Amino acid sequence: MQKPNFFFIILIIFFLSACGARDTVYEGIRFPETSTSEITFQEHTIPADCSAFSHLLMNTKMNSSGQDIAEAMHLEAQGKGANLVLVGMARTLVEEELETNRFDYYGPEYVYNFNKIWLGWKFGFDAWNDGDNLIGLGTDRWGSTDITFDHSLLIKAVFLRCGEDI
């Protein structure tokens, strides 16, 4: 009778469990953490001295308020060194039932001056196209404790660093 190789079994279990993990490790450009960050929804309000360094999609947890979403975005931005965030369009994710917020990053490979090089919301189409209806997410809902979103949201954003020669 042959003894099972327990090391081999444990190794297989480890690799199979790793396949299901969706935690992403940020490997993009970052700056020293900031203590505050501002939000804008309009590209034309970005100051001339702002550099874009991270394109992302935020997947919100279910039943988030506008305040929950704003706080999560601010914490993520400040942790990566952004002092300004451009928030773009948002879609509902009816099929997703996220229990935590998730941030998926799509470059860029280098820091660039936003006003000179920005080419638009041309990232994350693989995930973006899987979303459902567009939803209004602007100054009237952002940061509001009175509004709760029943479903997860998919939000496009860009992290910017302003006020420095980069």
Short description:
The chain is of the alpha+beta class and 166 residues long. The protein has helices at 6-19, 66-80, 114-117, 125-128; strands at 38-40, 50-59, 64-65, 84-93, 102-105, 112-113, 134-135, 148-149, 152-162.
What string, H for helix and E for strand, traces the elements in order?
HEEEHEEEHHEEE
Mean pLDDT figure? 87
Beta-strand residue fraction: 25-35%
Q: What does the largest sheet look like?
A: 7 strands, mixed
What is the rounded distance between the termini? 68 Å
Counting H and I runs of at least 4 residues, what is the number of helices?
4
Fraction of residues in helix: 10-25%
Helix and strand composition category: alpha+beta
- Tally the beta strands: 9
Morphology: globular
Q: How large is the radius of gyration?
A: 19 Å
Low-confidence stretches: 6-22
Task: Walk me through what this model shows.
It is a single chain. With 166 residues, the protein is α+β, with helices and mostly antiparallel strands. Helix content is 22%, strand content 28%. The chain is built from four helices and nine strands. The chain has helices at 6-19, 66-80, 114-117, 125-128, and strands at residues 38-40, 50-59, 64-65, 84-93, 102-105, 112-113, 134-135, 148-149, 152-162. Strands 1, 2, 4, 5, 6, 7 and 9 form a seven-stranded mixed beta sheet that branches. It is globular, with a radius of gyration of 19 Å. Mean pLDDT is 87; it is low at 6-22.
